[in-house]
Amino acid sequence: MRHLSAANRDSIRGGLGRSRNVVRAGLAGQRGFNLLELLTAIAILGIITAIAVPSFQSITVNSRLSTETNDLVSSLRFARSEAAKQGLNVTVCAANAGLTACSGAADWSTGWIVIDTGGNVLFAREALQATTASEQAIVGATGLITFNRNGFSTSARTIKLCGPDNMATRARGVIVSVDGRVRLATDSNANSIVEDRAGNDLGCP
């Protein structure tokens, strides 16, 4: 067996000592958050949450309103098409709880139906869904919207959809003209509020 000289043994001991010092220095540099740093991180997280949550809620409400508006437009266009196809009057109206007949109500948020003169329900849209009662969108219209066999509407109407906060800038509108044309309300004067068929800003509720 080969024996190390005294010089080699001293060199090895010195190297090991330096390695231990490096390890100790590295461990000493690894420390946790102090109280000030922790409080700062919590404050920053709170600010981010305060900004992000309302923005997410706004996106959710706008998305729901857009979906409901598109569903209503589709129902009205379907009713007009069926009236021409069947050669009889077809009506779109707020529905009763069972979605079997018109309720006669002005609030359509409980659901609506497409029904012909024979009382046959051609389409039913269930009550508008929301994550909480306070987020329930409102669909407002007065009376029934009926299309005859020529595709004309018995009257011109603007149906208004509002969000839970009743902000006019969130309002959506569906316009039905006497010739039976169905279109979305638009903002012609660039004030961020859509207008009814007469050109007046839609207010909520």
Query: Which class do the helix and strand fractions yield?
Result: alpha+beta
Bin the helical content: 25-40%
Q: How large is the share of residues in beta strands?
A: 15-25%
- Find the count of extended strands (DSSP E, 2+ residues): 8
Our measurement of the CA-to-CA distance between the termini, rounded to an integer number of angstroms, reads 98 Å
Order of SSEs, N→C? HHEEEEEEEE
Strands in their spatial order, largest beta sheet: 3-2-1-5
Radius of gyration, in Å, reads: 34 Å
Low-confidence sequence ranges? 131-136
Report the major sheet.
4 strands, antiparallel
| Mean of all residue-level pLDDT scores | 78
Total helices: the number is 2
What is the 3D form? Answer: elongated
Briefly say what this structure is.
This protein is of the alpha+beta class and 205 residues long. It is built from 2 helices and 8 strands, in the order H-H-E-E-E-E-E-E-E-E.
